[in-house]
Amino acid sequence: MLFDGVVPTPVLAFAGKVLNSSAAIMVTASHNPPRDNGYKVYLGGSNGGSQIISPTDAEIAAKIRAVAENFTFAQIPKSDDYVIIGDEMRQRYVAVTAAITDEITNADSLKVVYTAMHGVGWHVVEKLFEAVGLPKPVTVTEQLLPDGNFPTVAFPNPEEPGAMDLSFAKAREVDADLIIANDPDADRLAIGIPDANPEGWRRLTGDEIGLVLGHEVAKRAAAAGYGTPEKPGTLACSIVSSSALQKVAEKFGLGYRETLTGFKYISKIPNLLFGFEEALGYCIDPDNTPDKDGISAALLTVAIAGDLAAEGKTLADHIAELGELYGHYATGQISIRVTDLSVISKIMDNLRQNPPSEIAGVAAKFTDLAIGTKDLGPTDGLRFDQSDGRRVIIRPSGTEPKLKCYLQAVGETKSSAAESLAELKAAMQDYLK
Asked: PANTHER family from the xrefs (predicted)?
């Protein structure tokens, strides 16, 4: 079966589950440069719509290598025995996703700016807004339609500096209330909100969005009776994401799980209600789309922002209130992009063999994640936990030539958490030289 045209990755994951297919395949550069075009594979059967994990990934890679080494492209047999999946699947995804939120009555006065980041999200987002009765977003026209050259950005990743500059400019131009940005294959979501900085706008971190969405999903789940032995429910996030989600789970009587990095692990957690990773990935409807979905997450965020606006509040106000409720978590990241991957190996080997016993003057407990733990399988990562709640995790990126250092600090106030994070970041920058 082939789609009749380009389609967002969440729609493919949804279709794989709906059609009970043996597998689903997406060819996309996702949020990476054009030369890094990739190949995403989704499982069928009981895990339909969720990403493959080891050893399936290695087995598929071996088959691809065998074909590449033994055949030219012209020699590979071509098949015309396939069925075209038409627009009805997109429409079905829109109908199911529209039903996730309660009736949206407060968001129609919001002025929302949308960018597809040169990807494929717009037409589905447009249909979804129409389905729930929301006005069409104001669009960043330069980035609206698919263009695999990603001409307006160095990297088509909303996390990258400068990637949302056109969105900020459009928001200032139209005096918007909110920015929603998908990455090119629309499985990730960035949110921009008005801010007092010189640009007038800032991008929320993935951890901030994860807290907002996690709290909302947990609140709704508890109201629906989840959190009992008869109706269990679990919130999950990757080990490099903010552990504030654990506090949310505790408040609403739900389970909590940490996983290795990647939705291929998060989506397989039993009784999952919500999962997220700090890299702008959120799953709010695991029963239908068991993968990160930047489109459904965008709709729920707009609904939340509308409800807040009806109370005279903003998302920034709400995040501050959640900080008072769960504790103020400050998270950050140090990313080292390299042209020589051996640089990453050298830094990891040095820290693994000579782990610091203290960081920024506070004792640090070291865990080599390559050994694995009771709840997690082995992965190439290093973890440092401190008695004051600070945490450092260092790992190579799985999709880019980067070494990533994930930082977390907790404070009684937003400012104290930010100060603690700054101390931690300064100390780790010295260790990573």
From this structure: PHOSPHOGLUCOMUTASE 2B-RELATED, PHOSPHOMANNOMUTASE 45A
The DSSP result for 137-155, as a single string, is PEE-GGGSS--TT-TT-SS
DSSP string, 298-356: HHHHHHHHHHHHHTT--HHHHHHHHHHHH-EEEEEEEEEE-SSTHHHHHHHHHHHHS--
- To the nearest whole number, what is the mean pLDDT of the chain? 94
| Separation between Cα atoms, residue 42 and residue 51, nearest integer Å | 4
pLDDT, tens digit, 9 for 90 and up, residues 64-105: 999 999 999 999 988 888 999 999 999 999 999 999 887 788
Domains of the chain, residue spans: 2-88, 91-205+295-315, 207-293, 327-431
Is the preceding omega at residue 55 within 30 degrees of 0, hence cis?
yes
Q: What percent of the chain has pLDDT over 70?
A: 100
Q: Catalytic: 30? A: yes
Catalytic position from the list 30, 267, 296, 420: 30
Assign a CATH topology to domain 91-205+295-315: Alpha-D-Glucose-1,6-Bisphosphate; Chain A, domain 3 (3.40.120)
Average pLDDT, stretch 215-241? 97
Which CATH class name applies to 207-293?
alpha beta
CB neighbours of 429 closer than 8 A, spacing ≥ 6?
334
